[in-house]
Design a protein that fits this description.
Number of strands: 12
Number of helices: 13
Distance between the termini: 59 Å
Order of helices and strands: HHHHEHEHEHEEHEHEHEHEHEHEE
Oligomer: single chain
Length: 343
C-alpha cells in the first residue's frame, strides 16, 4: 500500500484545503463533522504522522509534556501516568516521564531538567510534590508553563489541582467498621505527605464521631523518612513490622486502617503468622485500590481514591490550559470504599 506522506496529499484526496487537514490534525474547531470524519478516515488509512520536529521549528513549540513521578516502581502511579500519556498523545503531544525519587531537593532539580527539555506543560504525580522546594523551582524555572498536580495542591498561578476527597473517605472507612461493631480502630500511616495527612484527619474525625477523643485514638507511623526510598517490598515489610507492634501493644484492637494497600498487605501477613482471624477478630482496610489488594488472600477492602479518574481529569485540565481556557484551579472528586473479604 502506498503511503501518503504529506498533508497536501491528504487534502487533495479529501477534496479540501491543506489548512482544513491541519485543523483536523490539531483538533481545532470550526469544521463540519462530515468533513472532519472524512479527513480523519484518510489520516487513519494512510497512518499519517505529523512531523512534530518540523512544526516545532515553525511554531517554536516542543509539543512535549513532562510527567514527574516519585517512584516508577509503584504500579498505582504508573497506571495513572499511562492514562495521562494516552490522553496527551491523542491530542498530538509527546510525554517524557521522569522518576524523581523521594528527596525534595531532587524533585526540584527535575523541574530544572524539564525547563531544559522545553516542555509546554507539566503533570506532577501525587501530593508529595506539593512542597516549598517544588514551588520555588516552578517559579524559577517554569513560571509560564501550565502545571497540573494529581491529588495535590500548590498555590501558584497556572497550577491546577485535581484532588480526591480522601479525608471524607477515611471518615467513611471508620463508619464502615463501626457499623460492624468495631470500635477500637487503629490507624497506620506511612510517608508524611499532604494526602496522608488528609487521610489521618478523616480517621480522627470518624473516631471523634464515635466519642473517642484524639488522645485515645491509636495512631502508628510506619515510614522511614524521605531519605530512604520505599520500594513495594520495603513498604510491605514495614506494614508487617508495625502490625506486630500493634498486636503486642493494642491487644484489644478490632480494626486497623492503613494509609496504603501495601502496608495493609504486610499487616495481613503478620496477622496470618499469629493466627489472627480476619475480619472476625480484626477487620482491615487499605487505601488506593491497587492491584495488590485484589490478588492477596484474603482480598483487601480498600478506599478507592479514583487515581485514574483524577489523572484523566488532570490531563484534560492541562490541555484546556494549553488552549488558553480559564478553568477552576482546583477540582475535588469523591472517593469510594471497595469492600472485599477483610471487612
Amino acid at each position: 500500500m502506498e503511503t501518503i506522506k504529506t498533508i497536501y496529499d491528504i487534502a487533495k484526496e479529501a477534496g479540501v484545503s491543506a489548512s482544513t487537514v491541519s485543523r483536523v490534525v490539531n483538533h481545532k474547531p470550526g469544521i463540519r463533522e462530515e468533513t472532519r470524519k472524512k479527513v480523519a478516515e484518510l489520516l487513519e488509512k494512510y497512518q499519517y504522522i505529523p512531523n512534530e520536529a518540523a512544526r516545532g521549528l515553525v511554531t517554536q513549540a516542543s509539543r512535549i509534556i513532562g510527567i514527574l513521578i516519585e517512584d516508577i516502581r509503584v504500579s498505582h502511579h504508573t497506571e495513572s501516568a499511562y492514562v495521562i500519556e494516552q490522553e496527551m498523545t491523542r491530542r498530538g503531544y509527546t510525554c517524557i516521564t521522569l522518576s524523581t525519587g523521594t528527596d525534595p531537593k531532587k524533585k526540584a532539580d527535575y523541574i530544572r531538567i524539564l525547563e531544559q527539555r522545553r516542555v509546554e506543560g507539566v503533570i506532577l504525580m501525587g501530593s508529595m510534590f506539593g512542597t516549598s522546594k517544588v514551588r520555588e523551582s516552578l517559579i524559577k524555572h517554569l513560571p509560564n508553563v501550565p502545571t497540573a498536580i494529581v491529588n495535590g495542591w500548590l498555590d501558584l498561578p497556572g497550577v491546577y489541582s485535581v484532588i480526591a476527597d480522601e479525608e471524607r473517605g477515611m471518615e467513611q472507612c471508620v463508619q464502615l467498621l463501626a457499623g460492624k461493631g468495631k470500635r477500637m480502630i487503629v490507624y497506620v500511616q506511612d510517608q508524611d505527605t499532604p494526602s496522608n495527612r488528609s487521610k489521618l484527619r478523616g480517621y480522627r474525625r470518624g473516631m471523634e464521631e464515635l466519642g473517642i477523643p484524639q488522645e485515645k485514638q491509636p495512631v502508628y507511623y510506619a515510614h522511614a523518612g524521605w531519605e530512604k526510598d520505599l520500594d513495594p517490598e520495603r513498604t510491605m515489610n514495614l506494614g508487617d513490622e508495625i502490625t506486630e507492634k500493634i498486636l503486642e501493644q493494642v491487644p484489644q484492637a478490632e480494626g486497623i486502617i492503613y494509609s496504603v494497600d501495601l502496608l495493609a498487605i504486610g499487616g495481613l501477613k503478620a496477622m496470618g503468622r499469629r493466627g489472627v482471624r480476619v475480619p472476625q477478630q480484626i477487620a482491615v482496610i487499605g487505601a488506593d485500590n491497587t492491584l495488590y489488594g485484589k490478588i492477596c488472600t484474603p482480598q483487601l477492602t480498600t478506599l478507592d481514591n479514583k487515581l485514574v479518574e483524577v489523572s484523566r481529569n488532570a490531563s484534560r485540565v492541562l490541555l484546556s490550559a494549553l488552549e488558553g481556557n480559564a478553568d477552576p484551579r482546583q477540582i475535588l472528586l469523591l472517593t469510594e470504599i471497595i469492600e472485599r473479604e477483610t471487612t
